[in-house]
Write a structure and sequence with these properties.
binds zinc ion, mainly alpha, 3 strands, 126 residues, 3-stranded antiparallel beta sheet
Amino acid sequence: MTLAEGIRKHGFRKWYERELLQSHAHLVLCFFCVIGLFASVEAATRFRDWHEQLIDGTAFVLCSAVGLWALRRYLYLLAHAEAAAHQADCPACKTYGRLELLQSDASGENVRVQCRKCGHVWQIGE
Ligand SMILES: [Zn+2]
């Protein structure tokens, strides 16, 4: 969900909370993949037959790929949410996150917002 969609649909604070929850869910998935990785290595050290070795190897590759994807997604979502949060303070009255979306660009990541407390207008974007 882009920043503009999030602010429009949920408001800034809820969007930020949802981005953090989503990013940490990816971190939990990454943790489970690390456990799966260790389990597949442990299973591969006990040689039984080639069929089971193939299954262990497949589990290793799958856990590695999904774990790296989840770690990358976690870092992206966290950095994205933090970058927007650092710009969510009203420059005029220093109120945090009480803003209204005025307009956004085509990507939905550069938005023009207005403070709900004092009415100051500023830009949040990358
Ligand atoms: Zn303000």
